[in-house]
Structure formats: structure tokens, C-alpha cells
Amino acid sequence: YIDNLRSIRRDALNETGHILLPPLPRIKKQQLKGLQIKDIGNLVDAEQLLLKIDKSGKESIVFSTQKKLKTDYKSLMILSATSDQNILSQIFPRLEYIDLGFVELKGKLVQNLNRSLSKSTAIREGQIEVLSELSTQIGNTKVISHKLEELDSLFNGGLNFYNSEGLNTFQDYDLLILGTPYPPEHLFPLVFLTLGIEFEIYELDWMQVEINGWIIPLRTYKDSCLRSAHIKFIEGILLQAVGRARLIQYNRKVMVISKV
After folding, report:
1. Which residue from 225, 231, 255 is spatially nearest to 113, judged by alpha carbons?
2. Sign (positive/negative) of CA torsion 244, 141, 109, 228?
3. What is the pLDDT of residue 107?
4. Which of 19, 49, 104, 113 would staple 63 via disulfide (CB 3.0–4.6 Å)?
5. Which residues lie closer than 8 Å to 195 by C-beta, 6 or more apart?
6. Nearest one of 98, 66, 69 to 81, comparing CA atoms
7. How far from 126 is each of 31, 52, 129, 131, CA to CA, in Å?
């Protein structure tokens, strides 16, 4: 099966560099020994797989599995600060969605929309020098940003966008949220296919999108359903980062430097 993947012609790839693959046959895990696969067990049971080939020709397989819920629940309650109502309504047809609305804060939340700072631009020539100067000015302010060694060294190993959810490490500190987190492009098509949510086209492009009343440029999906989930996901990561300062309980200041 793995050898057959390598026989797929490069010109069969769509513009994202991905090919949707059929599920693996139910083969024994011992047959995959020797391959550089981190999660052989889940790969064998994967429901959706994508073959990725980057510009250098490097191949990788990404996949998704679905955990089944027990069917004997009469009701299920989900408590989340960053859930996506559109996706939940397609997973749970009998959904009652209750939005608690805005909660009064003791602290102050400020956003700078003039910069976005993606992961790739953070390490461009000249940018590190700017961030280095910033690191000398913020004093005891804590930082949550991209997972990059260069940023960790500047900001004393601060938390990143993907390891800070739910933590109280930065409560009662002033906080700087630096940058816009962009999830892997294959994430949402894989999740949608696994959950049986339909979408029309799997392509991305730069476009003007409206987020919370602001029109901003964003490289996102052409399909409206994928695009909505993409934006909600980015917003959710930023909201989780803001929540680390616990502004409901503490009179602290959080500055978010992001266009989203």
C-alpha cells in the first residue's frame, strides 16, 4: 500500500499539494515495522488519509480517526469557550446552543490590528531584531506566541498557542498575545470528511473576509463552510490565549497583536 502511494503522479495533486487516499486495508501492524511512522496503530485504523508532497518532493501522510461516543446517553452537555455552533449543529442535529454572552472583565483587553505576524514572517530577516527590541521593553509582561525556538529564547520560553489552553501559569500577569496562529491546511478537510460534513472545494486563496465587523486579508478556504471553521479555529486559539491572564478575576492588561 505504501509503495503504491509513491506511484501517484505529482501532476495529480491539487494546488494544496494533497491527495485524498482510500483507507488502509486491515493489515497487521507488524507489516509496517521499519517505516518511519510515529503512530502505526491509529494509522491502520484511520478513516481518512491525505498524501502530502511539498515543493522539495518530501512525502508525508496525515490521517484522522474518529472516537465514537456511547449511544446510551439521553443528553450530552458540552461546556466550551470556543465552540463552533455551525459544526456542532451538523454533528448533533438536536442541538440546543446557549451563548452566555459577554462577561464583564476586571482587566483590560486591547487589540492591535496593524500587524498580523504569521509564523513564517516572525523569522524573516530583520523581524527578529524588531522582536528582540520589543522583548527588552515589555518588562514582566508574559508572552504567548508561535512555537519557535527563536521566540522562546527572546521571551524566556513563554507558552505557545498550542500548549497553553487551560493553564493558570500566567494568571495575574500582564500578557502579550503575539501573532496570528494558522492551523495546517489539511486539518479541516480531514475533520470534515471524518465527521461526514460536506464541502464543495478544497482550495485556498487570499481574500477579504469580515471578522467581527472588520474586513481583513486572509489566506483561507474558498469553500464557505471550511472558511467559517478556519476563522473560528483561529479566533478560538486567540481567545484561549487571552484567557490565560484570567481577566475576569484580575485587573491586568492583555495586548493582542493580530488582525483576526
Report:
1. 255
2. negative
3. 92
4. 49
5. 66, 87, 90, 91
6. 98
7. 49, 31, 5, 9
pLDDT at 172 over 60: yes
User: What gap in Å lies between CA 154 and CA 149, rounded to an integer?
Assistant: 9
* Average pLDDT score over residue span 51-72: 74
Burial 25-60 (b: 16+ CB within 10 A, else e): eeeeeeebeeeebeeeeebbebebbbbbbeeeeeee
CB proximity list for 51: less than 8 A, separation 6 or greater: 5, 8, 18, 19, 21, 59, 60, 61
Burial class of residue 13, CB neighbours in 10 A (0-12, 13-18, 19+): middle
> Is 186 or 46 the better-scoring residue by pLDDT?
186
Q: Which residues contact 121 (CB under 8 A, 6 or more apart)?
A: 127
